[in-house]
Write a structure and sequence with these properties.
Length: 207
Amino acid sequence: MSRTTIVDDALAGLRLSALRDAATPPAAFRAHARALGALLAREALRDLPAREVEVQGPLGPATGRVPAAGVVAVPVLRAGLGLLPGVHDLVPDASVGMIGLERDEETLLARRYYCNVPPVDGAWVLLLEPMLATGGSAADALDQFELTRAAAVSVLSVVATQQAIDHLGTRHPDVDVVTAAVDPGLDGQGFIVPGLGDFGDRVHATP
Ligand code: URA
């Protein structure tokens, strides 16, 4: 049964408010997306197993804890790339897969144009899809994995709709959603309202 977690504490709110602000320029938008990506990943990886390691400190040996499972981050191109630096801030060794989906502006359906995903056996998979509008492209992206081989799979989103969460829950019931907000719905062009506009355009500074 999929679980949805809304990360809406003050620190996530600070970042999301800046991302929603139409006056936030691309460099600041990227920085806020990175920081929010880390907060979302922190939530998704809360139960990541750990193992103990011995380190030699200046005053003697100390016992530390490090991840005991691999993490695979899969940004859905191109918007998902905006969350990737934040994931790497937390998990520097995370492997990266890429899935390219583009939206047909008339049908609003996703078309896959690129897919390069590493093995996910035993890994904690984070699919990075900042805007979960219908949930269709995230569900299509998840179809590319051998999901049953992964230890856990979460979709990291900045803004989602309930419709998208429900769609994902139907097509991928074992996948969790971690999002900073659930907005009321979509406009006639498939944009989340109020949302934050086109995440890909804003993070990549394209018109
Ligand atoms: N993709 C975006 O970038 N924004 C939306 O509101 C919906 C899909």
